Amino acid sequence: MPSLYYSDAVCSKPLFEQVKEKIIDQIRKGVWQANAMLPNELALADMYSVSQGTVRRALQALVQEGILVRHQGRGTFVASFRRNVSNVKTRINWFESDDVTLKVGQSKIVSFEKIAPLGKVLQRVGTQQGERVFHIRRETSWAPNGEVVCFDDIYLPERFYPGLTLEKLTSSDYPIIYAFYQEVYGVTVTHMQDVARAVLLNPEQAQKAGVQTPFPGIMIQRTSHNSYGEIVELRFLLNVTENQSMILSR
Hints:
A hairpin with a 3-residue loop joins β1 and β2 (about 75-80). The chain has helices spanning about 10, 15-30, 40-50, 50-65, 85-90, 120-125, 165-170, 175-185, 205-210, and strands at about 70, 75-80, 95, 105-115, 135-140, 150-155, 190-200, 215-225, 230-240, 245. The protein contains 9 helices and 10 strands. Strands 4-5-6-9-8-7 form a 6-stranded antiparallel β-sheet, covered by helices on one side. A two-stranded antiparallel sheet has the order 1-2. A two-stranded antiparallel ribbon has the order 3-10. The longest helix is centred in the N-terminal third of the chain and has 14 residues, at about 15-30. It is about 30% helix and about 30% strand. The two termini are about 40 Å apart. The chain has 2 domains: about 10-80, Orthogonal Bundle (Arc Repressor Mutant, subunit A); about 85-245, Chorismate lyase (3-Layer(aba) Sandwich). It is of the alpha+beta class. InterPro entries: Bact_HTH_transcr_reg, Chorismate_lyase_/UTRA_dom_sf, Tscrpt_reg_HTH_GntR, UTRA, WH-like_DNA-bd_sf, WH_DNA-bd_sf. This is GntR family transcriptional regulator. Keywords: DNA-binding, Transcription, Transcription regulation. One of its GO terms (molecular function) is DNA-binding transcription factor activity.
């Protein structure tokens, strides 16, 4: 049975925070995997030798952080990016087509490579000495073979995604790439930070987007963290707003 034995430093934390960390640890170890239902509050209280109120507070905090989801009348589950795509949209900024009949973008991978990180990528990802990163470049359109509306550069530290290949990325159908991280590598993104700025498209991008140069785009730099606070993804999304609009997260 799990117990709450910690160092003095950790014991200074509120009890619900200690329970929260225990639950996260069980999820990391795969005891409760994506979409798994957790024991009820009374069972968890008994498991951790705390009150039901302490457990409830810990669960509420984990739901707010997007690690767990609650379904009325059913219970509390480990968040699944496959089954809770809409939950992601409450945590980030995204774009919608100005054509209301187009709901889902069509993304394709145009390049995949393993590289030594340089410049901004090296500074932001904080890779270990000598570690390489996977660089995935994708392009998104609102219609098959349509004009590109988003140029997407993704950088993934190799230690979180060992053995990643283009075949793995393309062999399965995932609603969003975060579901792939979670289900194939056990990497659950619990926090995302988006920073946006205006940039100009280069001539090649403008041609693919069907616009004249100079043409401004919105560059979103996204830093994604796991429950340890480690950066598991660095992403640069250059969005063309000729035929789509940015929806701000709340």
